[in-house]
Specification:
Two copies of one chain form a homodimer. Helix content of chain A is 40%, strand content 20%. By secondary structure, the first copy, chain A, is of the alpha/beta class. In chain A, strand 9 and strand 10 form a beta hairpin.
Chain lengths: 331, 331
């Protein structure tokens, strides 16, 4: 669903990785349909669409597989089973169009791999419960820092531990801006620079006002620590108000300002927030600079475990979607 | 198997985590038998042994469950199925006694969770093939940096990527000694200090001569990148010869000396080694100091992903064993 930067990157990645998936995992991937806002490419009797990804990506609606007469539900029914790959833009007010797509797919017992956040952020508990009841999985690595494995590590590698706290640098753009400010540039100039490089959006509010981090810490907390957060539970601040003076003050104390998404568990009371926090060099996230992301889980029996890095480009997100599909298949 | 520091910590952890495993995973853990070198505790008709862990740990062989008349194979047969938890000391020359334990358990279609390295290092391919054929799993987080998730992340979170290279700081003791030398202390003094703290063994050669790192990079490469390394394939150096001059020379170039376990893939030719390497501050492992461990996977589509931290004590190893058991059960 969706054929923007991530949808295209995912389709190309499927073409590139088909052989490897077959050889290593016995998984025969087929790209059966691509829905765009005005219609769909549908493979029909063709085995799949990966061979014509470049033709479709060039934007020609006169591709032989193009149709405006097919609904998602018809495709879901005709194909019987599979994974719906949700790559439409994130809307955290309505969750649409992802929410409808995921709802329809769950209704037909399809698995979900999601890169868009809206639907899950708004309806996490309902969607997971429905998937669980239908015996299908919803994976969302693509929506929770993508190539940086956050949910995987929390759910699988820390299984059996108590999560005492989570702290993450979860938005590359805000960390890049803070790093540039550290080097003496104002917020406005650092933002313009990131926009010129295509790293920040023309309307940067999702990132710089902390919404992106809020969505991610919500999804990660809910998945890993079983919290039932809604977006209104996540106290949030952004980085627009940060001045070079603030940065310098932290520096003079040996600290660095970071926008952290946090889960704080205070004697059974769970709280999530997005907070500008001055951390010192003993903190595991102190050295995460530039557009890098990282997350630290604080646990009872395993201590603090930190994951950092992972490409932030559409291909990195596509790789996270593919990983989720492989792991759905494996389980 | 084995009731030393790790075996005891694991038994205690089972007692502590029984309720959580039942609630969260629907997994009803039972500790049915503990084999020591001279005999075994066997639960028999009792539901399990966790309630008397402290009595057994105090060393009394007159515990009502103690027996010298029972063989491992009798227990494996009587219980029909389960997970063999291998916690005996690592012997990289013979693999024993772990190799015999694992062989017997696989013969009875038991799963394996291993903290000892010997058997897997010597017979990786044979044991994995046998497990595969019998439809059971061998997990070895406890033998591959334990609470630091190395194999999990490589196999699950990077599924579908090409592993271009692996670099890890995999032995806490050697990293601690190098960090202390960085602060101006000689190798001998840093080693004595680590021994006094109980971090280094009285015979430190497994660690300081690079064997421990070699075993870990071998197991990680084989599991994650499908290499078929034996220990003789891993070129190896240790840290005994490092002088403060070496450290200072690296420092003067803005670098730091680290003992890295590496997988290098050179145009289809795979090579593993343990090498003292001077890395600069752009390297993801530059800031891993003291007894901390970390691993970086370099991939085609996800970029570089680094995991760091994780407790190094017996309870951290026990937690890694428990995690493996939970994930065996989940799959």
């Amino acid at each position: 669903m969706g054929f923007g930067n991530v949808g295209k990157a995912f389709s190309r990645l499927m073409a590139d990785k088909r052989e490897i998936c077959r050889e290593r995992f016995g998984l025969n991937l087929r790209l059966k349909a691509i829905f765009r806002s005005k219609g769909a490419y549908f493979s029909g009797r063709r085995s799949d669409l990966t061979e014509t990804v470049e033709i479709m990506a060039s934007g020609t609606a006169d591709h032989p597989a193009w149709t405006t007469k097919l609904s998602l539900d018809e495709v879901l029914t005709e194909l019987k089973s599979g994974v719906l790959v949700e790559c439409t833009p994130t809307n955290i007010e309505t969750g649409e169009p992802g929410l409808s797509h995921i709802g329809q797919a769950l209704g037909r017992n399809w698995h979900i791999a999601a890169a868009s956040k809206g639907a899950l952020v708004l309806k996490f508990r309902e969607l997971m419960a429905r998937a669980n009841m239908n015996g299908v999985q919803i994976k969302f690595s693509g929506a929770t820092a993508a190539a940086l494995p956050t949910v995987d590590v929390g759910v699988l590698s820390l299984a059996g531990t108590e999560i005492l706290a989570i702290e993450g640098i979860l938005t590359g753009v805000t960390n890049l801006i803070l790093t540039r400010m550290e080097e003496g540039i104002t917020f406005q100039d650092a933002l313009k620079e990131a926009q010129a490089k295509g790293i920040a959006e023309p309307d940067p509010s999702l990132d710089v006002d902390g919404w992106d981090t809020a969505c991610k810490i919500l999804l990660i907390s809910n998945a890993v620590a079983g919290t039932g957060f809604s977006l209104s539970d996540v106290a949030r601040e952004g980085i627009r108000g940060v001045t070079i003076d603030d940065i310098q003050k932290a520096k003079s104390e040996g600290k660095i300002l970071k926008l952290l998404g946090r889960l704080v568990r205070d004697g059974g009371k769970d709280k999530a927030d997005v907070r500008l926090t001055a951390i010192d060099k003993t903190h595991p996230l102190f050295n995460v600079t530039g557009s890098n992301k990282a997350i630290t889980y604080f646990t009872d029996t395993m201590g603090a475990v930190t994951v950092s890095g992972g490409k932030s480009d559409p291909r990195g997100t596509a790789a996270a979607l593919l990983k989720d599909i492989i792991n759905i298949y494996r389980s």
